[in-house]
Amino acid sequence: MIVVVRLSVNVDHVATLREARGGIEPDPVAAAVICELAGADGITVHLRGDRRHIKERDVRLLRSIVKTELNLEMAITEEMVNFALEVKPDQCTLVPERPGERTTEGGLDVIKNMEAVKEAVKRLREAGIRVSIFVEPDDEQIRAAKEAGADRVELNTRAYSEASTLEEREMELERLNHAAHVAGELGLGVNAGHGLNVRNLGPVAELPNLLEVSIGHSIISRAVFLGLEGAVKEILEVLRRKTGQ
Ligand code: PXP
What we know:
By secondary structure, the protein is of the alpha/beta class. It has eleven helices and eight strands.
């Protein structure tokens, strides 16, 4: 069986660089075009409440030029759900957001926020938008994502990617494997992301039921030295080697 694991490139950091000078370049929209030309299967952006990198303008332009899939990471606020309903990305990934955090710090606590998550999922799905929820690789959170009506879960690979010993990495990979299996049994699609790079992606690419990986920081970092096209292509090579695409 041919397993196709898609690569969605997160271009937030291109906007971070733009905002460092408050000007108009580099443009995350241009980055998205290059990622797609290099073979990426999707583009991800996170529109944060404080708009510190990606702006509404970026998401609207991306909606009209992305030819693969546009994935919008967003908090479960009324403002974000309304914006998503207007722009209609192909997929919304629900994430927790803490003002001032450097990056998303962990999975969404679906159990604690069940009513709000259910409401957001319902509104987005009724508009034909696929909904994924960023969660820790934890059975209870995955079951809660199913109960909330999600189509997919995105498993947080942060603990795996930050493991400092081989044993710890092995243990975190096992947690991811188990979580991906549980999600599949429940009929949920599986995405994965956070901290993935050309060196640690291989074992993650072989998770059961995996449909998509979302990678931002390492691709944009390596693009500084290798060019964006080269940075996307080397990730695609790992994915294709592992999944026989
Ligand atoms: N998935 C989610 C939900 C995220 O919040 C992030 C970080 O923005 C990523 C994936 C990508 O992580 P990284 O930038 O470490 O590749």
